[in-house]
Amino acid sequence: MESAASEKHEEGEEEQQQDEDETPYCPFFSNSELFAFMTKERFLREEEIAGVDESSFQFVRPMRAKLSILENPHGSVRFWQGLTCVIAAVYGPSDVRMSKELPHRAAVDVLFRPKVTGSGNMSAMLAAGLMDPLMEERAIEQTVVGILESVIHLEDHVQAGFNVILHEIENDGCLVSACVNATVLALLSAGCSLRNVVCAVTLGVSGDSVVVDPCAKQIQDIQKSMGKDACKSNGLLTFVLTNSHGFVPQILHVSCKGRVLPSELKTCYKLVCSGKIVQEVVRFFYLCISKDLKYSEGNGVEKIEEQVEMEPGEVESSSGDEVDEDGE
Question: Compositionally biased, Acidic residues: which spans (predicted)?
Fold first, then answer.
């Protein structure tokens, strides 16, 4: 009897150990949420993923997004920009620690988690002549914080906070732009009050040519040319644009990596201010949010459509009976 009980106990421990090995621990997202996205299904084109035909993207790489993928955050999105994939989660407005409370507005905190961490990743990037990965992560966080502080109505949420978590899934270039666009979609999904909708785009400059939204291979070619010829432009420009003044986009943030001459900088400025890139990205945001509202449960969209179909002289009472304008 004792031997049979011990065998069952050992079998139970083996099954428990096997389950723990199959579901690794993640400190930010639950195992069932995050690691389901990191399987092969994230490359499939599911029907519920909001997007448009790839041929409609003339300037940037094709975008895809799936909203409300996580249960706990107020807003979340899985966003693709080409092969670059980012998961963004927004918590807020919510309570924060007393040490982080601000008396005049809400606080904004952004945490970026790369796909690969550790000393191996750091040594590989330093050997390739790239930026320290820790510095690059902090730079992405500070960039997103500065943009959100200019976009969100923080004065409406005194002593509260907005927490944004960005998790890199795949990096095929333009990671900063993808993080900004994913954060904006997550804020729209959470219903946060925004002054205007912003979008980000990265331009690669190599000599006299300008590449919009370059991939990782194109960025590597540009980085190899950096520093070789001081008379030519070789760098990356990241623009964050907003359409706050009608259809003319306004530049909210610009960052440069490398060397860009004034003539090429003027060319890039005219390109991003033409409005075509902003309209293309903002149109994609609109399709994502409209589809999320259409298929979400209990959002009142069907109720609004019923009220629009009613006759102008009728209103609906709280008891469900129809009354005329005189209240009879």
Answer: 12-23, 307-328
Dist. CA 199–CA 182, nearest whole Å: 9
Helix pair 133-151, 119-127: axis angle to 10 deg: 100
**Strands, E, within 123-263: which ranges?**
161-170, 198-206, 209-212, 234-245, 248-259
Q: Which of 217, 164, 199 is nearest to 275 (CA)?
A: 199
**Beta partners for residue 108, in sequence order:** 162
**Helices and strands in the chain, H and E counts:** 9, 12
CA atoms of 19 and 41, how far apart (whole Å): 21
16-55: pLDDT as tens digits: 554 444 433 344 444 445 444 444 344 444 444 444 556 6
Per-residue pLDDT tens digits for 180-226: 999 999 999 998 989 889 999 999 998 888 889 999 999 888 888 77
The count of other CB atoms within 10 Å of the CB of residue 59 is 16
Domain 49-293 has CATH 1.10.10.10: no
Any idea which residue has 């909001």 for tokens? 50
